[in-house]
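To fix ideas at the outset, we first show an illustrative case, written as a sequence plus integers encoding its fold:
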Amino acid sequence: MKHAPLIAQNHMRCADCPIRHKAVCAYCEPPELAKLDAMKSYRTFQAGETIVWAGEEVDVLGSVVSGVATLSRTLPDGRRQMVGLLLPSDFVGRPGRRTAPYDVVAANEVMICQFIKPKFETLVSKTPALERRLLDMTLDELDAAREWMLLLGRKTAREKIASLLVIIARRDAALNSTTVGDGLRFALPLTREAMSDYLGLTIETVSRQISALKKSGIIVLEDSRHVHVPDYGALLDEAGDDSDGGFIS
């Protein structure tokens, strides 16, 4: 993510940020938040806009405040594989890494709270709370990668769609400090085309499986984007999840 003129600059106090308790700053105390507040800026990317190109030198790091971005890699023959999602509170870039390993593209309108990389790296080296949070986020990302591998490799199309809905529901609940359970509602941040890319399915299959889940009463589509889950346990069953929320091998 190159340091570029800001498209949007809505200055927001760190203490008032909607991702405050899930982002990289989650463990920071007021003095540390003040230092981050002094060095941050905001940038907005429109749907389809590339936030970071794979292989480019990165001089800005940041957290996703709103929206969803995709992580992908283009193969030498031009094929493109999506390898992950960045949801609100996820971190874009890695301190200490010079170049980006993946393309990061906005799936919808995305706002990034960004930091100039050298300044942020200096602060991290002096702030144990930031180091701990970055480690925890890296471990969470590893778990998400393993979950994604299972999602692609061992699940049916119906299970893949249900699993993606569970992932989005859990993240939405965590971000809003609500409980995941019966009656939950959340906004679906991806188009069906993006879902098909992420899950390795055709758009027709995605649409068919969503319709099947709707017909079975597992989900209710309140409109094109908003999902209502009357029975969360039933959705977990469709996803192949066990009662603890983990995946059945």
